[in-house]
Amino acid sequence: MKNILITGGAGFMGTNFADHYLSAGERVTIVDNLSRKGSRYNLDYLKAHPRAEHLRTIIADVRQPTAVVQQAVEAADVVFHFAAQVAVTTSVSDPRDDFENNALGTFNMLELVRLSQAKQPVFFFSSTNKVYGGMQDVIIEKGDRHYFYKDLDNGIPEERFLDFHSPYGCSKGAADQYVRDYARIYGLRTVVFRQSCIYGYRQFGVEDQGWLAWFTIAAVLNRPITIYGDGMQVRDVLFISDLIDAYQMALNHIETTGGRVYNIGGGAANTLSLLQLLDFLRAELNPDLSAAFADWRPGDQPVYVSDIGRAEREFGWHPKTSWQEGTRQLLDWVKDNRGVLEKLF
Fold this sequence. Notes:
Strand order of the largest sheet: 3-2-1-4-5-8-12
Oligomer: single chain
Order of helices and strands: EHEHEHEHHEEEHEEHEEHHEEHEEHHH
Structural class: alpha/beta
């Protein structure tokens, strides 16, 4: 039985990971400050888990980790560091809070791992495609309802130069590089996943972050939808179960993946524009679904698609869930949890 530590453990990703590892028979400790919308509902969900006796909850903040968090790191076999400020727009309005959550919080957790006396757990960091910046040099063409890369059929590789854009890009990018360098300098077993758009159950998405979940929730609850830009911007999207598989497979191959950086997303086979998602929701739910339009937001890439070939080559991972199948599963979850979502939105 492994000891799994998850920061941001009551968030979208953290809750799904905790659920998975509890069900797999592991001991799980989550650290969360419960500041995110929906985190208390997620915590209640975990506390009702059939194996909840193997769940430990620490209410704490990675910006100022307590001795209890330090002890949890000492006992851990694996640390999944998901605690973060996750919205570009919030980073622009409050860059200090963004820096302290993302850069300082990650540094604090790395130091706890480095200074761990009992053992040094494997450390996974959830990074972002925003470390590549706006990529203005990449030629983009316009399709019927989406943009696409002219010359990059497989998407953006890890060799792409870093060009942090927005305070969010800077804070996550700084953390990304710290995690990578702690493997080189201190010999820690760290893995960085530069993630594209992740979606799935228990994601309380909002306009600023988690757009696929937000559009789905808004469509079910008849809430207004706003598209920033022209709606043709494209992301590769990845369902949460495929993300969990990626982390577990990378852990299984830590002798190869330790110290490495990987792009993790849906890849070229799972690209989706905002307009295409609206078309899909109209067909599945409501033909009269509409959206308003507003100006582009700073740092928003017209296209981002991950080249996920390195992950497949080095630890055998590739997505199994199409965006259509995943969105239908998310839509079913939203319908089943409408009462909770109406309280939150």
